[in-house]
Amino acid sequence: MGILDTTAGSAYAAYGIYKLRNAYSGPGVRVKRTSDNAETDINFSGIELDWAAANTFGATLKVVTWYDQSGNARHITSSSGNEPLLDTTEKSIRFGQSGSTYFDLPNLSSLSAGEGFFYRKIDNDPSSTGGGGIWKIGSDSASSNHIPFSDGVAYDSFGSTVRKDTAVNPSSPMTAYHVFSAYSVTNDWADYMNGTLIYSTATNTVGFAASPLIGASYNFSSHYMVGHGRAFILFSAKVAGGDRTILGNTSNYAPPPPNITTTSLPGGTTGVAYSQTLGVTGGTGSITWSKPTGSLPTGLSLNSSTGEISGTPTVAGTYNFTVRATDTVSAFDDQSLTIIVSDPPPVPTTEWSLRDPIPRSSLLAWHCSDSIKLNDGDAVSELPDISGNNRTLVVASNKPTFETNIINGLPAIYFNGSRNPLKFTGNLTAKHIFVVAAYEDAAFPSGEPGYAGLLSSGTTLQDPLVGNPSSTKFFDFDWETFGAYGYRRRDVSFPENDQQAAFNNALSIFEVSFTPGWGMDGITLGQQRNIASRLWKGFWCETLMYGRVLDYFERFDVYCYLAMKYRIWRQVSSGLDVWPFQPNWTYPFPADKTVLASRAISGAFKAREKGTAKDRFGLSFQTRSPEETNAAKEFWNSKYPANTFIYRDDAYSPARDTEVRIISPFNRQPNGYRDIDYSIEFEEV
Q1: In 236-299, where do the E strands start and end?
Q2: 3-state helix, strand, coil in the chain (%, to 5)
Q3: Are strands 61-66 and 29-33 parallel, antiparallel or unpaired?
Q4: In angstroms, rounded to a whole number, what is the distance separating the alpha carbons of residues 296 and 302?
């Protein structure tokens, strides 16, 4: 699109080394080769002159005709000996290279108003005496026009009967490309530099020249332009202010050469897919990318059309190279870049992950507060993914805090209801999730804050755990209408319309499963997606995310792990805790019986039994870890001797629950270097 396609007014005449109107299909200039005076038209290639064709035609070319692109066929010519040069290096028309050079314009004396724009630069600012002549457009034949004169001031009679001695020095240097413009209407005259007013007056009589010039003033033998021109546009009226802003901006005439905006690239990791697209501004037409020097990391390649560097690096090292962006007129820009490829770091671990206590198959992400080491109250910037899948959660500002010794000597991350969430950006489909957390208040608040996001997607509506305002429940998204869905709190199942959460910072285990899976475009911890007001308030300790639904015994393993770590026990719907671990075997005790004498109906006395004690049984746990043993002992401490709980016997299908109490000491003894055997005796209630 040319600059005149973006303006409202129609040009009286328009000349440029760029296409000024997209519909224009003619040549840009006609040139004469100095070596033999042969002439040819130079057409456009894209939006610019075909500079390659010009260079092919000859080394030194004079411009004999500058074609009018307005559609009015007002072409301008230069007489023999006064022709400007076509400068293929500067990409301009060169004026005053060896004395006065200029173009003759058609007779303008019939115009009653007008405005002109000259896109140009001069060699010296201010010019030597008389050297700043720019044009002869007005009818003040007694004066010469100097823009600027030797004193740096603009003197001009554009379209006027009297020259305007502005006594104003344009603020921008004219040795850089700029647009000088002026308009003349009855009782109104002004000139501008790059759209900024230089001088204006309400005293003006319109008068346009019968023999106008571009590149020289009235006394063209001594007052001529020494510099470069790229476009001249003339209107037969004063243009609107918006058009003046467009026409006064040099960047609107043609895009600048390509400029690569990417100055650095992130490092890569061997075996991990890499993708970065280089940025570029400016340029004419499409951009072609290349790599003239250096080497990309092994496994990466540069897309010549898109500028994307992509692939999977395979060899660690530092790779230095240069990229080049080239446009359709062969203008280019180079940029030196470096990519450092490293071998992947060891998977982040905790003392728990090293013991591998949970199912690993299809484990998508594993985040926990004890995977980082901070001081109490420190801001949390990131949480590593100890699953090994590199789904690290990060936050840049307004960070949640690290709080020590929150549960069983372990830390938690605290969200105060106004902190930003921790996020991972990337796609995953989660089907089974465990979260250890609690809300701080007694219920979710009303309104927007009540939709407190504990765990959600990035931007898509795929949110496993979000609060329900003015309630003690998580929000019912009606997932069960799309497939098998389950919600449990501490292994107690709740229907989706009654998903009870945990409050007053009493940490609990939330478990959700969804057979179709949540197709998430990220992980957001502490907020519902990107909705600013829906922030979590309370503690969070751990999240496990799986890409499949776990079976019963895999779920049991997860609950055993969480019991050992946090001392949070499974429960049943009545609120009783469930014994957390499975024994190697059970052994029953004989029932105590009371033997009484009774009189037989006939014959001798005979014995009879009266009453039976409750069933009793012992549990033996062999070769157990200290972590399990300590957790079992703490459970024993909380129940012995009178508090009842549930023993779940998984030897049956479905498992059989029995309400019991402890009737024995906690018996334990070492078994090898680290393992422990322990046993406990229960009595049915």
Answers
A1: 259-260, 268-269, 274-277, 280-281, 288-294
A2: 10, 40, 50
A3: antiparallel
A4: 8
Please determine, for residue 605, whether its predicted confidence score (pLDDT) is greater than 60.
no
- Pick 291 or 613 by higher pLDDT: 291
What 3-state class would DSSP assign to 374? coil
pLDDT value at 210 more than 90: yes
The three-state (H, E, C) secondary structure of 416-469, written as one string? ECCCCCEEEEEEEEEEEEEEEEEECCCCCCCCHHHCCEEEECCCCCCCCEEECC
Polymer length of the chain? 685
- CB atoms closer than 10 angstroms to residue 406: 19
Indicate the pairing of strand 656-662 with strand 645-649: antiparallel
Q: What domains can be seen in the chain, in order of their start residue?
A: 3-249 (2.60.120.200), 259-342 (2.60.40.10), 353-566 (2.60.120), 585-684 (no CATH)
Q: What's the pLDDT tens digit per position in 97-132?
A: 777 899 999 999 999 999 999 999 888 766 554 456
Structure tokens of 382? 């990131």
Tell the burial category of 16 from Cβ atoms under 10 Å away from its Cβ (0-12, 13-18, 19+).
Answer: buried
What's the gap between Cα 224 and its chain centre?
Answer: 53
Residue at 266: amino acid letter: P
Q: Give the Cα separation of 575 and 571 in Å (integer).
A: 6
**Residue 152 has what pLDDT?**
61
Residue 8 has a pLDDT of 86
Q: Which residue has the higher pLDDT, 588 or 393?
A: 393
Percent of the chain with pLDDT over 70: 89
Q: How far apart are CA 205 and CA 161, in angstroms?
A: 6
Return d(Cα 133, Cα 156) in angstroms, integer. 9
> What region, left, alpha or beta, does residue 177 occupy, with left being phi > 0 and alpha being psi -120 to 50 degrees?
beta
Is the CA virtual torsion 249, 250, 253, 259 positive or negative?
negative
**For 302-336, what is the HEC assignment?**
ECCCCCEEEECCCCCEEEEEEEEEECCCCCEEEEE
How is residue 248 written in tokens? 């006064």
pLDDT 10s digits, 483-538: 999 999 999 999 999 999 999 999 999 999 999 999 999 999 999 999 999 999 99
Name the token pair of 513. 């499963």
Task: Read off φ and ψ for residue 236, nearest 5 degrees.
Answer: -95, 25
H-helix or E-strand spanning residue 637: helix 626-639
Please check whether residue 680 is in contact with residue 619, taking contact to mean a CB–CB distance below 8 angstroms: yes
Q: What is the pLDDT of residues 622-634, one digit of tens each?
A: 999 889 999 999 9
DSSP 9: S
Q: C-alpha 424: how far from its chain's center? A: 12
Token pair, residue 594, equals 């009371």
